[in-house]
């Protein structure tokens, strides 16, 4: 029984790795876009129906304009990479929602929401482009599907552990289960999430540059975010996101590459 469980995990890993067209990396992915997008689009519609969408204001128009430029940049970049068909099933939308939370997100398939609470931190168009480029990058890199797949794998691993320790005492099983849960969360899931954030920063800077914004403005935005947090928060190794200092240092190092790619690809006029 244990042998077949381990074999099942191995086969799942081999069969569920696919090359992401924007990163060129092999990623674990149990969920296809054809499966994910319909649910994503429905969730987006439901969210908009249950929240106050801001329309007709200068801020709402800014979100629309920046979102459209980031969309064009994504299309231009993927065409440059020879992957123009990758976005054919995207249904882009960019909505400003009244909410005090300092947040923004993009669901799979290009469904973007910006909360009004983040606008005092973005301050200007390039600050907003930093945020929207980052969030769109999560979708382009299939981070949502990857996290779902990793969580499924974590559950499978837990089932294997339960089978392997089934002959042990209940106390021993509980100790192993707790150690597995903490070990996979701190040692695998959280670093995985942090790597997704860094990857989204990298792609987002490139999209910013192609969209005609200066990627160096991303440093100013994240510095404002760091100042708002006051330097307090969860230690990096226990967080889904890199620390402010780590993120800013990474972004500074990635800016030259983003600019170089934009020169090759061309910018949005």
Automatic annotation (TrEMBL):
The keyword Metal-binding applies. The keyword Signal applies. It holds the Pfam family Peptidase_M48. Binds 1 zinc ion per subunit. Keywords: Hydrolase, Metal-binding, Metalloprotease, Protease, Signal, Zinc. Its cofactor is Zn(2+). Residues 87-253 form the Peptidase M48 domain. Residues 1-17 form the signal peptide. Belongs to the peptidase M48 family. PANTHER family: M48 FAMILY METALLOPEPTIDASE, METALLOENDOPEPTIDASE OMA1. This is M48 family metallopeptidase. It comes from Flavobacterium ginsengiterrae. The lineage of its organism: Bacteria, Pseudomonadati, Bacteroidota, Flavobacteriia, Flavobacteriales.
């Amino acid at each position: 029984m244990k042998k077949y469980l381990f074999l099942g995990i191995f086969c799942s890993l081999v069969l569920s790795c696919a090359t992401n067209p924007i990163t060129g990396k092999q990623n674990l992915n149990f969920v296809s876009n054809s499966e994910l997008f319909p649910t994503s689009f429905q969730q987006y519609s439901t969210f908009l129906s249950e929240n106050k969408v801001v329309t007709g204001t200068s801020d709402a128009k800014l979100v629309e304009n920046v979102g459209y430029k980031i969309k064009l940049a994504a299309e231009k970049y993927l065409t440059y990479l020879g992957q123009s068909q990758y976005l054919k099933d995207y249904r882009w939308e960019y909505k400003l929602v009244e909410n005090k939370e300092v947040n923004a997100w993009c669901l799979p398939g290009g469904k973007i929401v910006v909360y009004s609470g983040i606008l005092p931190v973005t301050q200007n168009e390039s600050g907003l482009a930093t945020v929207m480029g980052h969030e769109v990058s999560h979708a382009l890199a299939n981070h949502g599907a990857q996290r779902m797949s990793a969580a499924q794998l974590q559950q499978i691993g837990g089932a294997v552990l339960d089978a392997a320790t089934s002959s042990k005492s209940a106390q021993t099983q509980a100790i192993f289960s707790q150690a597995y849960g903490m070990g996979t969360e701190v040692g695998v899931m959280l670093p995985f999430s942090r790597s997704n954030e860094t990857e989204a920063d990298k792609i987002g800077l490139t999209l910013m540059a192609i969209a005609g914004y200066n990627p160096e403005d991303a440093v100013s935005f994240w510095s404002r975010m760091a100042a708002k947090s006051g330097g307090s928060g969860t230690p990096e190794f226990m967080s889904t996101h890199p620390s402010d200092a780590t993120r800013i240092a990474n972004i500074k190092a990635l800016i030259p590459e983003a600019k170089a790619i934009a020169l090759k690809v061309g910018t949005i006029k």
